[in-house]
Design a protein that fits this description.
Elements (H helix, E strand, L loop, with lengths): L11 E3 L6 E6 L2 E6 H6 L9 E2 H12 L8 H7 E7 L2 E6 L4 E5 L2 E5 L1
Parallel strand pairs: 1-5
Antiparallel strand pairs: 2-3, 3-4, 5-6, 6-7, 7-8
């Protein structure tokens, strides 16, 4: 997936501090980090740093997509928003369904 970059840019928001997540390229690994955490540190916001590959994997498994079907256009068409609060992640889709991850436990909701 190294050819896919910044798929989730402008889609991830921190619900702890109401800031957007920024992208960060860490030696070819794309990460998303809360603006507050990036600028002020974990003491000000402890929302998780998300790896793009992790988000891709979760969404592909939930949606039954393979690598060639997963692209920027598909992400923008299907994902409404990704909300992060500490270790809790809620991926909301435009069709009304969602994926909730809380403390590394995945719940697929409608």
């Amino acid at each position: 997936m190294s050819d896919i970059k910044y798929l989730f840019k402008n889609l991830i928001i921190c619900t702890k501090c109401n800031k957007n997540f920024n992208t960060k390229n860490n030696n070819g690994t794309i990460n998303y980090i809360c603006q507050t955490r990036k600028n002020r540190g974990k003491d000000y916001c402890d929302s998780e740093i998300l790896k793009e590959d992790f988000l891709i994997d979760i969404i592909q498994k939930n949606r039954g997509l393979n690598g060639k079907d997963f692209n920027l256009s598909k992400v923008k068409q299907t994902i409404k928003i990704i909300e992060v609060n500490g270790t809790d992640i809620n991926i909301k889709f435009k069709d009304g369904s969602e994926i909730e991850l809380a403390d590394n436990v995945m719940n697929f909701g409608l």
